[in-house]
Amino acid sequence: MGNINERIEAPTGPCVSLGPPLPFFICLGSYKMAVPGAIIRVLYMRFSSFSINGASAYGSVAAGRVQIPPEGFRIRYPDLKSAIAGGVLAEAASAGDSLDAESVNFEPVIPNAGKIFGVGMNYMAHIKEMGREPPTHPALFVRFSDSLVGHREPVVRPSASTHYDFEGELAVIIGKTARHVSAARALDYVAGYACFLDGSVRDYQRHTSQFVAGKNFRKSGAFGPWLVTTDEIPNPSVLKLQTRINGEIMQRGHVGDLCIGVPDLIEYLSTICQLDPGDVIATGTPSGVGAARDPQRWLLPGDFVEVDIDGIGILENVVEDET
Asked: Are the C-beta atoms of 290 and 165 separated by less than 8 Å?
């Protein structure tokens, strides 16, 4: 925080004035008009959900700290999903309690997402390694909220199977109600992006032609570490993704190589159903999954899994066996 007396760039996102006596602004984006004597606070556009001593909370994340919105704000908007729906993320980052990020337990970015869609076979190299044909339409499945954990929380290899596989993905979080939205306008309906570990139990996934069984074992996937808003990522196709296990790169991908890109996914899904704020789309995984390797590489207890997307961050999880 400091006095800004020079010409700065115009805000690309909303600003909240907290003056007087001096003009005090909390702003999302960048600036271009001079505000002599004003105090400007530029937000890092990252928001996460977490718990503190078992109590759920949310807030902005920057420089290794989380900032929780003031109590009055949290009464009106008790979770990140409601803040997104209310269009008040700028206000959600306003001054409140600040804590060391190491002192909280991260939850999935949207713990109470109404709908979580997965998209199978959406990178050409992954389609080839799995021996499938390119899709003419998105290969959709759903995940349930309790199949996911947050950043730095353990993911669980189920007792029913040892064929527990990894899939690093980009997650899209919907920002406002979308119904019959064209691809040309689709990104206007996005709140932001996060990393996603689509943990997959392959033998159960292959029991039928439907993927749902293999995608919904409890705590088998992860979603985090935080939401990065579209002010920072106006075009997700430029993002690059890596999945690492114990430091070894297993997957590399470029979001621009999606067979069916983010705008087209939103157009297709919003034709089928109404997308609501906080709904999630996991967009698909690049090649390099464990099932396609020779020898196959299944996740084992103690494995340290990282999904790393430039411009977002690194989702970190350790594998545990189900107890």
From this structure: yes
Only one residue has tokens 């206007």, namely 188
Counting Cβ atoms within 10 Å, is residue 167 exposed (0-12), middle (13-18) or buried (19+)?
buried
Q: Cα–Cα distance between 84 and 205 in angstroms, integer?
A: 33
The two three-digit tokens of residue 122, written as one number: 């959406």
Encoded tokens for 263 = 């705008």
Rounded CA-CA distance 14/113 in Å is: 25
**Token output for 202:** 């392959």
d(CA 144, CA 155): 15
Q: How many CB atoms lie within 10 A of CB 49?
A: 25
Domains and CATH numbers, the chain: 3-42 (no CATH), 46-106 (no CATH), 116-321 (3.90.850.10)
d(CA 317, CA 208): 29
What is the tens place of the pLDDT at every residue in 276-301?
Answer: 999 999 999 999 999 999 999 999 99
Q: What is the pTM of this model?
A: 0.87
